[in-house]
TrEMBL record:
Keywords: Aminotransferase, Pyridoxal phosphate, Transferase. The keyword Heme does not apply. This is Aminotransferase class V. It comes from Spirosoma linguale (strain ATCC 33905 / DSM 74 / LMG 10896 / Claus 1). Pfam families: Aminotran_5. InterPro entries: Aminotrans_V_dom, PyrdxlP-dep_Trfase, PyrdxlP-dep_Trfase_major, PyrdxlP-dep_Trfase_small. The keyword Transferase applies. Residues 64-368 form the Aminotransferase class V domain. One of its GO terms (molecular function) is transaminase activity.
Length: 398
């Protein structure tokens, strides 16, 4: 992986975004780069003639992707990576195996941060009912700045009655960071599992499995991994090594690449996280696309992406604050990120109406609850930041 020493310049020429479009919305869906797009076209062309396809071809693409994703999150063991179709699937694996957690007992709770993405909330309803667990939600503070106090409340919520903590590196709506190294340490102290939804961070923000030491990390591929939809990746630590998968895919068993022996039914799984792969995880078209996007991200480097997006938007934030907007300040691992920023609009402003006004002027952002979510990337230029400020100035000055 390229180091963060050299600075990134705009990568707009590597994308097919039309001129005049100001796409500051990677947190909703990343545009595919030309390289990823070409990888998809090439894969479709190969699929038009499957003559000569070998058994190992069903496995090799995913092996390469596991290795690349492991490099991105500083995971030394690619066998701990599973191919999943979604965050809901990856979190369902955690829920399925929670009854096997040592020391689990009725009356314990699962800790969530407030206003979390639905896939990280719905996953626990059934297992809570079955095991007699409750949900403890840590709401976002009203006082400003919110990050340090929210992190403090999260740590305070983790105690000897905590069975599981679900926390993201970056809040999906507001861009506020959580100090997952501290959260992981607290979880280990009380014997709780830590599951991380890395979807809104991994690829654009440095995320280090070695320092966080989570039990599970799940990441959709179509946002900051900049790959295709319906394909994601998940890390499962040693707690899941002998766990129960959601489905019994034939490819997840030992020696499953020996097609001439498939009727010699194999009771033994391939090691570690392999049992949690979704069925048909080969994804002959999508896997080469994800491989290309991961290679690109490793070259760009998440730290360099943070630097680029910081410098891109650094003049926009003060201008928007002068309009009465509010932005979480920088505060290390407890402040805001650079690639995903929640912009709180002035009171009595309708975020959906503002989003529509921006869309009319070809500026794409997302309205999320009380804020606009601004999500720049390396394909953005100063013209995009200027367009955001220009349109908001017109809308909010009325």
């Amino acid at each position: 992986m390229r180091t963060a020493a050299s600075q990134l310049t705009t990568q707009k020429d590597k994308f097919s975004l039309p001129d005049g479009i100001h796409y500051l919305n990677c947190a909703t869906r990343a545009p595919l780069s030309r390289t990823v797009e070409q990888a998809g076209h090439d894969a479709i062309h190969r699929d038009s003639n499957p003559f000569g396809l070998r058994p190992d071809d069903f496995f090799s693409g995913a092996i390469r992707v596991r290795t690349l994703f492991s490099q991105l999150i500083n995971n030394p063991d690619p066998d701990r990576i599973a191919v999943v179709p979604s965050v809901s699937y990856g979190m369902a694996v955690v829920a399925r195996n929670l009854p096997n957690k040592p020391g689990i007992r009725a009356g314990q709770h699962i800790v969530l941060v407030g206003s979390e993405f639905p896939s990280d909330v719905y996953a626990w309803d059934r297992v809570c009912l079955e095991l007699g667990l409750t949900i403890k939600t840590v709401p976002m503070p009203e006082e400003y700045p919110r990050g340090p106090r929210w992190n403090e409340r999260l740590l305070d919520a983790i105690d000897s009655n905590t069975a599981l903590v679900i926390a993201p590196p970056v809040h999906w709506m507001y861009g506020i960071r959580f100090d997952l190294e501290a959260v992981g340490q607290r979880a280990r102290e009380v014997g709780a599992w830590l599951a991380v939804d890395g979807t809104q961070a991994i690829g654009a923000l440095p995320v280090d499995i070695g320092t966080i030491q989570p039990d599970a990390v799940v990441c959709a591929g179509y946002k900051w991994l900049m790959g295709p939809y319906s394909l994601g990746l998940a890390y499962y630590g040693p707690a899941f090594d002998e766990g129960t998968p959601l489905e019994e895919g034939w490819m997840n068993r030992l020696d499953s690449n020996q097609f001439h022996k498939l009727m010699d039914y194999q009771p033994v799984y391939r090691p570690k996280a392999y049992r949690y792969n979704v069925g048909e995880h080969t994804h002959f078209v999508q896997m080469p696309m994800l491989e290309a996007s991961l290679e690109q991200l490793l070259d760009w480097h998440p730290e360099r992406i943070q630097t680029y997006t910081n410098e891109l938007m650094q003049d926009a934030w003060p201008a928007l604050e002068q309009l009465g907007c509010q932005i979480e300040p920088l505060n290390g691992s407890q402040g805001r990120s650079h690639h995903l920023v929640g912009l709180w609009l002035p009171e009595h402003t309708d975020p959906m109406a503002v989003q529509q006004a921006l869309q009319t002027e070809k500026v794409s952002v997302s309205a999320r609850a009380r804020a606009l979510r601004i999500a720049p990337h390396v394909y953005n230029t100063p013209e995009d930041a200027d367009a955001l400020v220009r349109v908001l100035t017109k809308v909010l000055s009325v």
